[in-house]
Amino acid sequence: MKSRIKITGNCLQITRTLDAPQERVFAAWAEPAKLQRWTGCKDATDVVCESDFREGGSFTTKMHIGGHANCDCVFSGVYQEIRKPSKIVYNVNLGPASTRVTVELFAEGAQTRMVLTQEDLPSEIIRFVEQGTLESFDKLDAALAAQGTTA
Considering the chain, what percentage of its residues have pLDDT values greater than 70? Predict the structure, then answer.
């Protein structure tokens, strides 16, 4: 599915409609085993997600990125707000920047409209984050489709 992208200053917003119910999309964000199946750009391997999924809980995601970057990345953060099954807000440390991410999930029949808003992104990494997030969402689409065939 295609994503709608909006960049305003240091804010990136990506809207995407997923072919899965809201509860299943929320679980893909909330459960570390599911999250590590789709998080990271297309070149990410060896992804490990650890999470204490509750308000005030922390998370760490580690991955190796091959290709041009060929590096190991670690992202960590703290969950600020969780409203099951419609909203997740967290702060994440990306290394060169700490940003605030809001994920909103809107039920639309058998589909879910997902709106991710990431604030305070330095201009020098906003396109890199955009690309990685779009590639992650492609992987999320595939993971949800595979889950739908086994459910």
Answer: 95
